[in-house]
Automatic annotation (TrEMBL):
Residues 63-83, 396-453 are annotated as: Disordered. The chain crosses the membrane at residues 19-39, 145-162, 168-189, 196-215, 221-242, 322-344, 364-388. This is YibE/F family protein. It holds the Pfam family YibE_F. The keyword Plastid does not apply. The lineage of its organism: Bacteria, Bacillati, Actinomycetota, Actinomycetes, Micromonosporales. Residues 73-83, 396-411 have a biased composition (Low complexity). Residues 441-453 have a biased composition (Basic and acidic residues). Keywords: Membrane, Transmembrane, Transmembrane helix. It comes from Micromonospora fiedleri. InterPro entries: YibE_F. The keyword Aminoacyl-tRNA synthetase does not apply.
Length: 453
């Protein structure tokens, strides 16, 4: 997660480093303590169900045939159910019938897999309740393990080839993120802990590990950590206020309703807030790291910028970033909810009723709260980065003017010039046609760099 800004930042004054250490280290320790307190020690285990035996196999033959008439449907009634019909021959790869060829009916019905010769499939064994010695095979789905492995290898290879050591660090951060989600956040919510608190602690833990692992231990990374943590807390508070104001219960999706049947003790309202926090983290750290790096690069390019000028210049970068990220968030939520949006197009209710319904209002609140948290992260991180970047720079200069403000750069004195060189320059006649001097000053601090419409 996050952007890559690999150029080393200028050295931070020792006093500023001490302030960052005193600020960041207690926050990290508090996160660890909160994680230990909330760590799920008695998370409910999945109930043992009547799972059918599953075996791997390869399709060797497919024979289709006309479907027999359904006596429950009158003749002449058009129907799409019941087909296709026929038999699939599968060579079993494991289990008691390994190496043998077995027959199974062609999968039919909504969502049934479409099989052909040489397809790798998963078989389930069905035992006749009247005669346990008789068993039949059905095709459940395709095998997806090998394609997923190759996709994962391609994903890792592309990241390492482009990012090199930084790419390896990013992969390690991704593995750490999933480890925290699978061992702390999800079991903690399943154990009945407050989902909002678990999500904030888990997101903070992910943030500390991923940012420092990916971008290194530096003042710039510490600024991004503080900005991300502040934006996360603000996002959680905004989400709590928005869901309470709109009276959302968390039952806005079929998945939430199904979860309530299996885990009735899970707080679905808190689970909605936890989803907003976790979903915002990936974009938040990208914005904060970019803003911290932008301030550092601007200060490095023009050390004469004052704090106000540096803040304004970096904020213009943040505005452009936020304008694109907002669209990214909305499209990400829309892409994940395409079946829901298609269902809305077939709804005959009035538009006002559709928009204010639970399942659509939930998506609106999620997008708006995440966007507000991102917008707040830009000025917060930019201000912190500006203070850290400019703090102590007058104390490090040997030519600082006494009494000069901390946010005003002092120009360096001109180097001494030899007297003979000066007399020679004054006595040399000026050429008649002198080309105009090229202006090389930094642009006006208040001038906008945005392209006009």
């Amino acid at each position: 997660m996050g952007a890559d800004h690999s150029r080393a930042a200028p050295p931070t004054p020792p006093g500023v480093r001490r302030i960052l250490i005193v600020t960041v280290v207690p926050l990290f320790l508090a996160t660890l303590v909160a994680a230990l307190v909330l760590w799920p020690r008695d998370a409910p285990r999945p109930e043992a169900g009547d799972d059918l035996p599953r075996y791997h196999g390869t399709v060797t033959r497919v024979v289709t045939e006309p479907c027999p008439p359904n006596p429950a449907v009158p003749e002449g009634t058009p129907t799409t159910a019941g087909g296709p019909c026929g038999t699939v021959t599968v060579r079993v790869q494991d289990g008691p019938d390994a190496g043998q060829h077995v027959d199974a009916p062609i999968p039919a019905g909504p969502g049934a897999p479409s099989v052909s010769v040489d397809d790798d499939v998963i078989l389930v064994s069905l035992i006749d309740p009247e005669d346990p010695a008789i068993s039949t095979y059905n095709i459940a789905e395709h095998q997806r393990g090998m394609p997923l492995i190759w996709l994962g290898v391609l994903f890792a290879a592309a990241i390492v080839a482009f990012g090199r050591l930084r790419g390896l660090a990013a992969l390690a951060g991704l593995a750490a993120s999933f480890a925290i989600l699978l061992t702390f956040v999800l079991p903690g919510i399943s154990a009945g802990q407050p989902p909002l608190i678990v999500a904030i602690v888990g997101a903070a833990l992910i943030m500390f590990v991923v940012l420092y692992l990916t971008h290194g231990v530096s003042a710039q990374t510490s600024v991004a950590v503080l900005g991300t943590l502040g934006a996360l807390v603000l996002t959680g508070l905004l989400g709590l206020a928005a869901t309470n104001a709109t009276h959302l219960t968390g039952f806005g999706s079929e998945d939430a309703t199904t979860l309530s049947m299996f885990r009735g003790d899970v707080d679905l309202h808190g689970l909605l807030l936890a989803g907003i926090i976790i979903g915002s983290l990936g974009v938040l750290d990208d914005v904060t790291v970019t803003q911290a790096a932008a301030v550092t690069e601007l200060a490095h390019a023009n050390p004469n910028l004052s704090r106000r000028e540096l803040y304004r210049s970096a904020t213009r970068v943040g505005r452009a970033h936020i304008a694109s990220v907002v669209n990214t968030i909305v499209l990400a939520y829309a892409g994940a909810s395409l079946p829901l949006l298609l269902l809305l197009t077939a709804d005959s209710r009035a538009l006002g009723q559709i928009v204010t319904s639970e399942f659509l209002a939930q998506e609106i609140v999620r997008s708006v709260v995440a966007t507000l948290g991102l917008i707040a992260a830009v000025p917060l991180t930019t201000a912190l980065a500006t203070v850290v970047t400019t703090a102590g720079r007058r104390r490090t200069g040997a030519n600082a003017a006494p009494g000069a403000p901390d946010d005003v750069a002092v120009a360096q004195p001109r180097p001494a010039t030899d007297r003979a060189e000066t007399l020679q320059a004054l006595s040399t006649p000026r050429p008649r046609h002198t080309p105009p001097a090229t202006r090389s000053e930094w642009p006006e601090p208040d001038r906008s760099t945005d392209t006009p419409w």
